[in-house]
Amino acid sequence: MLLEAQNLSVGYGGAPAITDISIAIDAGEIVAVIGPNGAGKSTLVNCIAGLLRPQAGRLRFAGGDLAAVAAHRICGQGIALVPEGRRLFAGMSVQENLEIGAYRRGARQMQLEGIERVYALFPMLRLRRQQMAGTLSGGQQQMVAIGRALMARPRLLLLDEPSLGLAPSVVEEVFEVVRAIHAQGIAILLVEQNVALALAIADRAYVLEEGRIVAAGVPAALLAQSRIREAYLGL
């Protein structure tokens, strides 16, 4: 397995956010994590990205102990995060935001190639490469955020709520790009509020409620459960 979390618990101060979670992602997989607001989805992603430390359990990536890696070195391990809300540098241009994503040594050496790959995925960004990121539409900003993460040449891409605040037509476009990224062999952990879209592209999925995994499996098996269909798809 590329990523393995075993009996992982993470909290804020004395308050637990996720408890005794075990998930796994193999190389080249898309794995979705779905659940209601406040279930702990972003906490899980931020822990994998090194922004939060586990209080218990094991977190391994490519066979190594990820919990022992300093936060600023996580990207160098081959993990890149597209955070909820995008968090771009609004006063910098599209191209400058992309260049920041290539700060680790291996990626810096292939920066120009990386930028061309991003522009191939998002042709609109090439046209707006000198525009300030803060003046872009929400969908365009999400494209820049994904492109910035890809500049690090990750083996695992963490996508935290990529459809949040976007128009339905733009969401479809973003998910088409997610499929294209997956086709390049990059593993993806997708945290997403649009359950139907997430399950449509995922190889496997986990359902998170109140900080715990309550269901897991291939999308077809999850969709066959009436409770999942009622709670998350309104069926």
- Major sheet: arrangement of strands: 6-7-8-3-9-10
- Give the structural class: alpha/beta
Helix content: 25-40%
Number of helices: 11
Beta-strand residue percentage: 25-35%
CATH class annotation of the largest domain: Alpha Beta
Total E-strand runs: 10
The named CATH superfamily of the largest domain: P-loop containing nucleotide triphosphate hydrolases
Backbone CA Rg: 17 Å
Q: Could you please say which CATH topology of the largest domain applies here?
A: Rossmann fold
Please state the oligomeric state of the protein chains shown.
single chain
Q: What order do the helices and strands come in, and which of them pair?
A:
Blueprint: E1 3-12, E2 15-25, E3 30-34, H1 41-48, E4 56-61, E5 64-65, H2 74-77, E6 79-82, H3 94-100, H4 105-108, H5 111-121, H6 123-127, H7 138-150, E7 156-160, H8 168-183, E8 187-191, H9 195-201, E9 204-209, E10 212-217, H10 219-223, H11 226-233
Helix pairs in contact: 3-7
Summarize the structure.
With about 240 residues, the protein is of the alpha/beta class. Helix content is about 35%, strand content about 25%. It has two domains: about 5-80 and about 155-235, 3-Layer(aba) Sandwich (Rossmann fold), CATH 3.40.50.300; about 85-150, no CATH class.
